[in-house]
Batch of 3 targets.
Target 1
Amino acid sequence: MYRQAGPDALAGYRARRDELFQTHPSSPIPEADRAAFRGLRYYPPDPGARVTARLLPAGDEPPLVIATGGEDGDIVYRRAGVLHFELGGTACRLTVFAMTTYGGGLFLPFRDATAGAETYGAGRYLFDTVKNTDGLCLEVVPGSDEVVIDFNYAYNPSCAYDSRWACPLAPPENRLTIPVRAGEMDFHTG
């Protein structure tokens, strides 16, 4: 997987994402709307949205089954671990899921206090490794239980753009009570 580094990494990521949304045949932007598409809406970059988290083992809870409402049917997730971190002075936790179906990989959906007003109402994703969306938002700290997560890379699921897409959404355990004003904003402006 290609990883861009340096001070322009986030701007480069956003520019490539906008280009893919306008030109890729599988873009979630409806084909009839792509000619008028001028890019996604993002919060300004926030260095405080890049945090170090402790990744601790998940408990022995049963798998989480999420119905997509679409052709994919039910997707089964195993809790792979729990991230503990502080964001804006508030202690937070998010569960990282491992998909046991749909290609495997790690998945982190979340919803925060901006949902429905500034960001997509059902929540956003921080990463979905089966789709190579971890980019620079997930870095492992070798030899420790720490990882660095960067909410500047938070993005909307495909269903935020077109109802033809069905997306697994953030479960109750991944709902933050604080606003996360980093990453992608709601696509619809009005």
Target 2
Amino acid sequence: MADDLKFVFVATGKDSEHPRNFVGMADTHSRVETVRMRKKQEAPSSLIKIPVRVRFVHFDFKNDAIFARDEFFGNVSVSRDARTAASRWKPIGQTGDTLSSFINQGGPARSITDIYHAVRKAPRGSLIDVSLYSHGFLEGPVVANTNDPGGEFSPSVPRRSLADHDGRVRTDFFPNMGEDPNAEGQNALVEFRGGFASGAVFRIFGCNVQETCRGD
């Protein structure tokens, strides 16, 4: 039986006050989820079916970089030495394989749309977890702390600015996901949904600031 392949995406946002706090959460997330998956790997509810290789991809917005590391479950057809090497975080373009070639190989992680595009291009049904660690507010996760100038392609068809790199309720989960509905945004949300396995999770860890109240 050929090894299955699944993906876990974890993103860590910029933090001007504590710049290292979010970054370390990616490794913690990968270790905790690995333990969780090992405990449930043979359960009917498990999102993995052994033998399987799970690739953790870290979108690091503080360092504008993308990294990857792998975990292996069951009797996989990968040598012990290769498994040990693959278990270490490496820049996405240095993994030595083509398993994540659908992700920007240049490695800059500058916009939350980098994650969205990776989900849309991933092998169908391969994403089991997308988790974001960052600041947040009513519009969504703040991974880069940018502004939204607004705009629409037409009424009720939102346009996302290329200068806006954060999560936006206004644009992100409309059918076009904020992109040109006659071009790259034509089937955007359908493509996005298709990247997820049945039962997969999309989680946002962080605050949700709606407004600041000041008392005198």
Target 3
Amino acid sequence: MPKILSSEITSQRVYVNRRTFIQSLVAAGGATLAGDAVSAQQPAVHGRKLKTISSPFSTTEKPNTWEHITTYNNFYEFGTDKSDPAIHAPKWRVPQPWTVSVEGEVAKPGKMNLEDILKSETLEDRIYRHRCVEGWSMIIPWVGFPLANLIKKVQPTSKAKFVEFITIADRAKMPGLSDDVLEWPYIEGLRMDEAMHPLTILAVGVYGEVLPNQSGAPLHLVVPWKYGFKGAKSIARIRFVEKQPISSWTRAWSQAYGFYSNVNPKVAHPRHSQSTEARLPSLFRTTPTLMFNGYGDQVASLYKDMDLRKNY
């Protein structure tokens, strides 16, 4: 059996940093942070604002704060503790210009400059639910554009059935790469119709600002009806392939992390139930988990002929 990951061990800083955690106990009797803090949009941290429009795909739920979103992260390239990315990622200098290599079954392969891609895109504010297989969830106000837009530009061939995402692996600046918890670089994949779905975006910002490093800068895949680990961060290569790719977590522990990874409260993780979740900053799993993370009306048709207990 795989070793117990630090990400599956509950601690105070699993939910909030120490200072906020202690304040929350005083202010809210140990259960949640004050409601005003949860809904308040934080002021600009570095002033790098993005020009955006509102998206009709957004949830009406109140987003988590900038502090929650940027201090509680899964980004194993910078460490397995939830606080590690916020500590180590800011030290990493994102290569400029950022290029994405497009490969495989496409009519227009080659390297694409992210800045050039963004010149032709209208960025949208998309407030999405985010559900982690570990049992916690957030509401995150992403800024991004539909992945489908990029796919159409590179013109996949009829052989392209899946899209594979490969992230950067900077061993000099990413201390987590020395850990053998996963094989590096990080790899994820989607079926072509999942990749083309209008809910699937490439995020370049959060709360109207350029993504901070710990949130997956500069390019983060967001698929809101799936568990968060499907969201590849710091994407460096996109490959269009005929056969289903083997994603990093599936390779590491296929019994727990299937290729599809749709949020399904009826399928338990080998170590815990998925029927309820802790909506951060709450410390307790009191929120019922929604099928497809609440996006069933939009995406259930993609899986109408599939057994979602077997295709997890």
